[in-house]
Amino acid sequence: ELKVEQNPLFLSMQEGKNYTIYCNYSTTSDRLYWYRQDPGKSLESLFVLLSNGAVKQEGRLMASLDTKARLSTLHITAAVHDLSATYFCAVDIWRGQETSGSRLTFGEGTQLTVNP
Amino acid sequence: DTEVTQTPKHLVMGMTNKKSLKCEQHMGHRAMYWYKQKAKKPPELMFVYSYEKLSINESVPSRFSPECPNSSLLNLHLHALQPEDSALYLCASSQDPLAAYYNEQFFGPGTRLTVL
Asked: What local confidence, expressed as pLDDT, does residue A23 receive?
């Protein structure tokens, strides 16, 4: 059974600081997604990582994937208050056509609070 | 049109009521999903439809009944729910569930359900 672990689960940081959220998963996969969720809202897709060594950046967020270590990171640079949200990583494993439909396994989420 | 829509946004129902949630997408996606999300938890997969056929039922109680009338529409019929069923219900869609390449899921805004 695929397990996805995120840490930390709670992160309080000051504006202007840098930090990294980690996402470990238990089974080989080369499909990893990062989502952002604001309170009471839906999931917003941030990054899709599809190969070993993949790195993507959008504004103050940068995500990377190391499939050999089964690890993805979400790095926050010079945090601002608007980044306060819950961040989920999710892993998908190709299960073959007989089990149609991708099945995402989510981490528990990291609740990020950026303080002035 | 690149979005998934859900109606209603909020729903309050009694335990004896029958109601339905609706999800629609016009991206030509052939997989559609229902998730349940409790506060501060990751989404939990409930059902997957692939090419309008139910492909995955994650042991969901029969008081939840999904329906996929066509490739663009997904319903979730609710009957005799319990207060613990109160949650955010998210619909998602993805392009081709039978493809071996990545199958990113796009989420709708969700329906906030309260069962009294």
From this structure: 98
Query: Which 8-state DSSP code applies to residue B95?
Result: S
Q: Which of residues 74-103 of B touch A (CB under 8 A)?
A: 88, 90, 94, 97-98, 100, 102-103
Tokens representing A100 are: 């149609």
Rounded-to-integer distance, Cα A37 and Cα B42, Å: 10
Amino acid at B23: C
pLDDT value at A18 more than 60: yes
pLDDT at B8 over 90: yes
Confidence tier at A60 by pLDDT (50, 70, 90) = very high
Strand, helix or coil at A108? coil
Residue of B nearest to A98 (CA): B98
Instruction: Say how many CB pairs under 8 Å bridge A and B.
Output: 69
Among residues A45, A83, A81, the alpha carbon closest in space to that of A61 is found at A83
